[in-house]
Amino acid sequence: MAAANSGLQITNLDFGSIKNSLKSFLQQQDTLQDYNFEGSALSVLLDLLSYNTQYNAYYLNMIANEMFLDSSVQRGSVVSHAKLLNYIPRSAVAPKATVNLTVNQVTTSTLTLPKFTSFISEPIDDVNYTFVTTDATTVNVSANTAVFQNVQIAQGIPSAFSFTYNATTNPQQIFQIPDTNIDTATLLVTVQESSSNTSFETYTQASDYTALTPTSKVYFLQEGMNGNYEIYFGDNILGKSLVNNNVVNISYISTNGTVAFGANSFTITQSVGGFSNTVTQSVTSATQGADKESIDSIKFSAPKAFAAQGRAVTKEDYIYLIQNNTSNFPVDSVSVWGGEENDPPVYGQLFCAIKPSGALTLTPTQKERIITEVIKPISVMTVVPTIVDPDYTFINVDTKVLYNSRRTTLTGGQIKEAVIATIKAFSAQALNTFNSTFNAPQLITSIQTTDPSIITNESNIRVQKKFYPTLNTKISYTLNFGTKIKKNNFVQGVRSYPDFSVSDINAPNNIRTGVFFEEVPTTSGGVASISVANQGFAYTKTPIVTIVGDGSGAEAYAVLNAGRVVSIVVTNPGFNYTQATVTISNASGDTSGALAAAVAVLDGALGTLRTYYYFNNTKVILNPNAGTIDYNKGIVTLQDFAPVSINNELGVFNISAMPDSSIVSSSFNRIVSLDEFDSDAIKVNVIAQ
Q1: Measured CA distances, 657 to 559, 575, 640 (Å)
Q2: 469 exposure class (CB count in 10 Å sphere: 0-12, 13-18, 19+)
Q3: Radius of gyration for the alpha carbons in the chain, expressed in angstroms and rounded
Q4: What is the per-residue burial (b if ≥16 Cβ within 10 Å, else e) of 556-594?
Q5: Are strands 137-140 and 110-113 parallel, antiparallel or unpaired?
Q6: Which of 600, 603, 605 is nearest to 556 (CA)?
Q7: Alpha helices, DSSP H only, in 342-501?
Q8: Which residues contact 36 (CB under 8 A, 6 or more apart)?
Q9: I need a labelling partner for 503 at 20 to 30 A (CA). Which of 290, 347, 375, 487 fits?
Q10: Banded model confidence at residue 470, pLDDT cuts 50, 70, 90
């Protein structure tokens, strides 16, 4: 007989390899050398052994994977590994809105708006969502009217449960909350003496374990293996332990998460203190919600939480700890940079830009809360970042799609909807965060692959800035697009939307309506100005300024002060320059002057904005110098802009331009985004061949 295991190969674990290995082993046996395995019942037994071996190998491989955070696929395994790193996965977070509530015909001197007072929102996708107050509020009544200002309401339904502690059946003091939609930030835990003794104590969630004593009234929170959250209590060493027959009472808000984003126009559904003559006014729509943390997010965040140890030292620490703050304040993206990176530098400061979930910017109250609850507890001494609002550069896409109608069963309208969906999916994946980059060729490729019937597409991209101008007040607005702007003509150049009304500069009592901004094309190629980059030193005579480039005729002279070049005056701009270099050389007899340097700014690098309106179908220029354009820096300035009104019910004003590059990147607090709520952000024209 052959050696027992000489034919077995244990490294190949797929079905075919296992079966061939077993067959080879059996064929090495003297009694089975000439046996026809394929034509016998023994082949079925080999299949069975091979399947069993493969199943066991797969099962053991999956078990091995679940032993490590990186390779785990089961949520229970991921949560268990995260627990060893002292990481608690984030629960769903209730979106929050703000309302003003007026109660009329009140006959008492004060009135209290109870916690969990219910409101209902306007429909979102045909669903009305319930919102409740998060705290009780008491106000004084004046003239039989009670006014509750800036009341915060959260989306969800109040829920409550009670558990009676039994040391025999539950020695670990673990209580599972039977609700996967809990917002743990709203969790309130009290411990009652017993069912017959209603005195109770309020417990708070443990955070700093080093500060716990045997009498600390704290509870611990964790996610269980089945996905539900659990609370448990101390052991009389780290936190106070429960006593037999204690009753644990919990209350919280059960929320739908992000589906209620944007909810507005609320209506109270109950009386307040018995008074039902109420008026509800919306202040802010619902934002700041989040869904329960995903497996991938837990895998990413847990190791970083352990590495940061709750203290922010590096920029990466701040980014991680703010994104995964213990206050359950949901944020989509964070950017942090040192003041030395600014232009000009601001040494000794740290700057932080935060994009909140469901909103574009933080409110002043939210900023204060972020600084107090999130940043200060993690910052090292004397370092508290300055919160800077995100600066949005919006992308507008205008695409023309040519498709072969014979290659698809879709209609032109369906092709259009599919292309719009592709553009939105591209935006969701590549944009809307700090450090995001818009790549036009990638978008064009995505559109091209939307459907096999699409032959080609031509897409025009514009960048846009949106802001709320102050009415009737002259203010200069500086809009930084974050990318070079293409110098163009009336149709494709810098322009505004919507129209606005403004006082006529020539007749201030006349209000001109239907006014727009437009770029004034320039044809001159001269040197507009020369900026001093280095003043140099020790000049005894005015140095000679020489301008060299592909044009001709430009002349300038230097102005000295205390041996330094303080400015350079252009006396002749010349013409036909597309590039120019300035050199500063010593005048005859001056041997000590040195290091002065300057940079030429060409006419082509700067542009002018003007305002216009139409009268009897004729364009009338209202203000020929209404603003400036720096094409290279991508900066548009509206000078002394004082509109009387904006032809937009929200008061939003837009300035758009053609980018000089097909790639638009963000940096610092800039976010490149596509506004899906803007009907003009995506335009698709479908043409059948």
Answers
A1: 37, 26, 20
A2: middle
A3: 35
A4: bebebeeebbeebebeebbeebeebebebebeeebeebe
A5: antiparallel
A6: 600
A7: 364-369, 376-378, 412-430, 440-448
A8: none
A9: 487
A10: very high
| Residue 406 DSSP code | G
Give pTM, 2 decimals: 0.62
Res 584: pLDDT: 92
Report the C-alpha gap between 554 and 538 in whole angstroms: 27
Name the DSSP letter for residue 371: I
Nearest to 187 by CA among 259, 290, 94, 301: 94
**DSSP-assigned letter for residue 294:** P
pLDDT tens column, 27-59: 777 776 666 667 666 777 777 887 888 778 777
Spatial CB neighbours of 449, under 8 Å, sequence gap ≥ 6 = none
Cα(445)–Cα(173) distance, integer angstroms: 57
Q: Which residues lie below 8 Å from residue 84, measured CB to CB, with a gap of 6+?
A: none
Q: How buried is residue 626: exposed, middle or buried, by Cβ count under 10 Å (0-12/13-18/19+)?
A: buried
Closest CA to 548 of 496, 585, 521: 585
Shortest CA distance to 384 belongs to which of 345, 339, 341? 339
Is residue 318 within 8 A of residue 380, CB to CB? The reply is no
Cis peptide before 344 (omega within 30 of 0): yes
The H or E element that residue 687 is part of is strand 682-688
Helices 75-84, 295-308: inter-axial angle, 10-degree rounding: 10
Q: Measured between alpha carbons, how far is residue 472 from residues 260, 372, 399, 449, 643 in Å?
A: 36, 36, 38, 49, 6
Could you tell me the two tokens for 40? 């016998």
**Is the CB of residue 315 less than 8 Å from the CB of residue 336?**
yes
Total number of residues shown for the chain: 689
Q: Which of 395, 520, 516, 398 is nearest to 465 (CA)?
A: 395
Q: What is the dihedral of CA 449, 450, 456, 460, to 10 degrees?
A: -110
536 φ, ψ (degrees, to nearest 5)? 65, -165
pLDDT band at 10 (very low <50, low <70, confident <90, very high): low
pLDDT of 135-188, one tens digit each?
A: 999 999 999 999 999 999 999 999 999 999 999 999 999 999 999 899 998 999
CB 517 within 8 A of CB 609: yes
Q: Is 157 helix (H, G, I), strand (E, B) or coil?
A: strand
